[in-house]
């Protein structure tokens, strides 16, 4: 069994250390506002390259991604300002629980629910990965092109409140991805005569600009009008793991339902964890036997979405590992990390580097156990972290951002590009343009172009290749359908004769 | 880092808070598009800038295509598609903003702090690259300046905390990167 050898890889002291470092950093950045898993992985990429240990590094990165999902819930419960966008749904009921002196119960149902969901969904990943990879072997260039189109369209249509603004962000990302020398012909595109642009704009530079610089500039432009109160932890009461008997019985079904929602949504190109968390929140609210508690701290509203966001993380890994298609900003950075090590995720990865793949999957089981320990008994540490004064926190983010871009490349042009992207990102936040489509555009755009041209080369410039192959055609039709998906609730409502329903839309991932 | 009691804390600025279910204002009731951009000329200016930038880039792409020819599998097609899409989307955005004018919530903004912070960042990176000050001293200076720019509390109440952070952060990063990770940072005038 492949997974057994994967555990063999992970259980070496060095890889266990990588996993522990990963989940700890992940929880930290999940708790901290203003810094998320995508930015953290981008900043660590140059360091990771030094370590020259692809397996260990990717285990660490996966730990960061998973840890951020756990840590984000702490901030949303205690501060009412989610540390990660995937925790927005959690904060609605979670913060109300904390205000009513049930912070520990909220944190416990979030952590245990994350553990349950993380473990179950990793089992699902284990069983889905190999068949998906063997299916992916049959994919041709035209299929990959269609898949990239589908991923881009769904993410853009679902993230943010407006399709136009989502498309604008995506277009900006596609443009950034075009900069540099064309890999097939060597022609320079959009380099504006700047030599260091010939290699293109590095993904680290773009992410540092969009997230670290952009977020900080945006925050300081509105520093004075924001809330600050951290809800205190009440003294530990009875019950197993801070949950009373009734808490347990009200939590376990939402955990399982959240898992069932999170995993498939993560695996689909739908932009990561935001959609399943909100679907789970709505579902639990509708099914609840305690409707009067909603809005005043219903535990189901924490249990469901938290399970969903952790399950979606394993789901995201399915297309990332088997097809090399990222469905969230963090997955896009992880894909770049694979690239740094000259590894290309996809069916070949399972044949060429089974140690890495199965080690990575096995590390998720171990990481979940570590995260449960980090987030229940050690919760006080993270409450302390929340009390870091904001000016010092954001100053620190800027120092690490500059370090990540400059000190490693030594190229000041890169730094100025990051600053420029940061200014653009500040305005994007101000005018409510989503950020995640930019990154997916940068990563998926070039992939799409290469596969398009490769498909044409193979078919002697015959465009009908994109409609002749059934798989390609189906994927392209799905992409068209995905454009209409956010409007579905409104259409259904109209058919049933109700008017005032909002369209599906979700927050942004950092 | 020393723990700070809640009463001494700075405002935690974390981006827009989650709508409080009991607060109808926060849920964006009464606006055409919840969370939409501010009223006033801002979005119109943004739309115009986007449109102009897109048009310029499209012109560049077309010029390059005219020069070296366009083929389906060639390198000049993608730039035209992307910048063309840019122009179309920017037009749609601008049209939408013109129609929605006057609707939406205003978020009070200050431009002074981000502008000064940007100047500090540029100064910091120029100092790193072109002077002999070195990583540790430049970073200390930057931390002090940036923390001061973002702080809302009087200097004398935070100076000790800021100084400790400046020294700890800059020395910590320098030693970690140069000694443990083998990444070279400019040593500068300090005998490190």
Helix/strand layout:
The complex is a heterodimer of chains A (510) and B (192).
Chain A: H1 2-10, H2 13-31, H3 37-51, H4 54-79, H5 88-99, H6 103-136, H7 141-158, H8 163-178, E1 180-181, E2 188-189, H9 203-220, H10 245-267, H11 274-287, H12 300-323, H13 329-340, H14 347-352, H15 354-375, H16 379-385, H17 390-409, H18 412-430, H19 436-458, H20 465-468, H21 470-484, H22 488-495
Antiparallel strand pairs in A: 1-2
Helix pairs in contact in A: 1-15, 2-4, 2-15, 3-4, 3-9, 3-13, 3-17, 4-5, 4-6, 4-12, 4-13, 4-15, 5-6, 5-12, 6-10, 6-12, 6-15, 7-8, 7-19, 7-21, 8-19, 9-17, 9-18, 10-11, 10-12, 11-12, 13-19, 17-18
Chain B: H1 42-68, H2 77-99, H3 112-130, H4 135-150, H5 155-180
Helix pairs in contact in B: 1-2, 3-4, 4-5
Could you walk me through the main structural features you see in this protein, from its secondary elements to its overall organization?
The complex is a heterodimer of chains A (510) and B (192). Chain A is mainly α. Chain A is built from 22 helices and two strands. Chain A has helices spanning 2-10, 13-31, 37-51, 54-79, 88-99, 103-136, 141-158, 163-178, 203-220, 245-267, 274-287, 300-323, 329-340, 347-352, 354-375, 379-385, 390-409, 412-430, 436-458, 465-468, 470-484, 488-495; strands at 180-181, 188-189. Chain A has a two-stranded antiparallel sheet. In chain A, helix 1 crosses helix 15 (354-375). Mean pLDDT of chain A is 85; it is low at 499-510. Chain B is an all-alpha fold and 192 residues long. Chain B is built from five helices and no strands. Chain B has helices at residues 42-68, 77-99, 112-130, 135-150, 155-180. In chain B, helix 1 runs antiparallel to helix 2, helix 3 (112-130) runs antiparallel to helix 4 (135-150) and helix 4 runs antiparallel to helix 5 (155-180). Residues 1-39 of chain B have low confidence and may be disordered.
């Amino acid at each position: 069994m492949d997974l057994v050898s994967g555990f063999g890889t992970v259980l070496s002291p060095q890889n266990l250390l990588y996993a522990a470092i990963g989940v700890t950093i992940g929880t930290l950045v999940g708790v901290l506002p203003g810094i998320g898993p995508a930015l953290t992985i981008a900043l660590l990429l140059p360091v990771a390259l030094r370590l020259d240990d692809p397996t260990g590094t990717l285990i660490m990165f996966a730990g960061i991604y998973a840890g951020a999902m756990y840590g984000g819930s702490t901030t949303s419960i205690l501060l009412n300002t989610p540390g990660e966008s995937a925790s927005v749904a959690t904060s609605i009921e979670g913060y109300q629980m904390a205000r009513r002196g049930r912070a520990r119960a909220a944190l416990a149902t979030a952590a245990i629910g994350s553990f349950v969901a993380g473990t179950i969904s990793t089992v699902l990943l284990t069983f889905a990965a190999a068949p998906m990879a063997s299916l992916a072997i049959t994919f041709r260039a035209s299929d990959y092109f269609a898949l990239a189109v589908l991923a881009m369209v769904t993410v853009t249509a679902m993230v943010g409140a407006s399709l136009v603004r989502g498309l604008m962000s995506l277009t900006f990302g596609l443009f950034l991805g075009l900069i540099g020398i064309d890999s097939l012909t060597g022609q320079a595109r959009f380099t504006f005569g700047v030599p260091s642009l010939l290699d293109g704009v590095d993904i680290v530079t773009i992410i540092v600009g969009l997230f670290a610089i952009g977020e900080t500039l945006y925050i300081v432009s509105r520093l004075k009008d924001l809330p600050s109160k951290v809800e205190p932890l009440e003294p530990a009461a009875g019950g197993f793991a801070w949950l009373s008997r009734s808490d347990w019985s009200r939590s376990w079904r939402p955990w399982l339902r959240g898992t069932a929602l999170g995993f498939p949504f993560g695996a689909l190109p739908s932009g990561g964890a935001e959609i399943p968390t909100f679907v789970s929140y709505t579902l639990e609210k509708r099914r609840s036997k305690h409707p009067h508690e909603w809005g005043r701290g219903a535990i189901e509203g924490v249990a469901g979405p938290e399970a969903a966001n952790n399950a979606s993380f394993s789901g995201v890994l399915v297309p990332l590992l088997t097809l090399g298609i990222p469905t969230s900003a963090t997955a896009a950075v992880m894909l770049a990390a694979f690239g740094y090590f000259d590894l290309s995720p996809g069916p070949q990865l399972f044949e060429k580097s089974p140690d890495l793949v199965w080690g990575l999957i096995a590390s998720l089981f171990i990481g979940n156990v570590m995260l449960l320990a980090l987030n229940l008994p050690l919760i006080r540490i993270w409450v302390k972290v929340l009390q870091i004064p904001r000016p010092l926190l954001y100053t620190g983010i800027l120092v690490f951002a500059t370090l990540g871009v400059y000190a490693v490349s030594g190229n000041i042009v890169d730094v100025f590009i990051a600053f420029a992207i940061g200014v653009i990102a500040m305005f994007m936040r101000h005018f409510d343009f989503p950020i995640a489509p930019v990154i997916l555009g940068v990563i998926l755009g070039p992939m799409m172009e290469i596969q398009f041209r490769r498909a044409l080369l193979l078919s002697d410039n015959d465009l009908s290749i994109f409609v002749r192959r059934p798989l390609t055609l189906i994927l392209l039709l799905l992409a068209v359908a995905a454009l209409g998906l956010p409007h579905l609730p409104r259409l259904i409502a109209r058919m049933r004769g109700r008017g005032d329903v909002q369209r599906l839309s979700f927050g942004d991932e950092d | 880092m020393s723990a700070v009691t809640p009463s001494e804390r700075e405002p935690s600025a974390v981006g827009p808070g989650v709508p409080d279910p009991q607060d109808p204002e926060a849920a964006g009731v009464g606006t055409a598009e919840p969370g939409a951009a501010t009223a006033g000329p801002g979005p119109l200016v943004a739309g115009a800038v986007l449109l102009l930038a897109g048009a310029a880039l499209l012109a560049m792409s077309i010029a390059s295509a005219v020069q070296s020819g366009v083929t389906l599998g060639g390198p000049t097609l993608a730039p035209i598609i992307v910048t063309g899409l840019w122009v179309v989307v920017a037009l749609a955005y601008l049209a939408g903003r013109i129609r929605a004018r006057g609707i939406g919530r205003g978020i009070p903004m200050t431009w002074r702090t981000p502008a000064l912070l940007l100047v500090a960042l540029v100064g910091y990176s120029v100092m790193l690259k072109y002077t002999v000050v070195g990583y540790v001293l430049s970073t200390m200076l930057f931390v002090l300046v940036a923390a001061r720019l973002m702080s809302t509390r009087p200097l004398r109440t935070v100076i000790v905390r800021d100084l400790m952070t400046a020294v700890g952060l800059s020395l910590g990063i320098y030693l970690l990167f140069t000694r443990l990770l083998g990444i070279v940072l400019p040593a500068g005038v300090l005998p490190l």
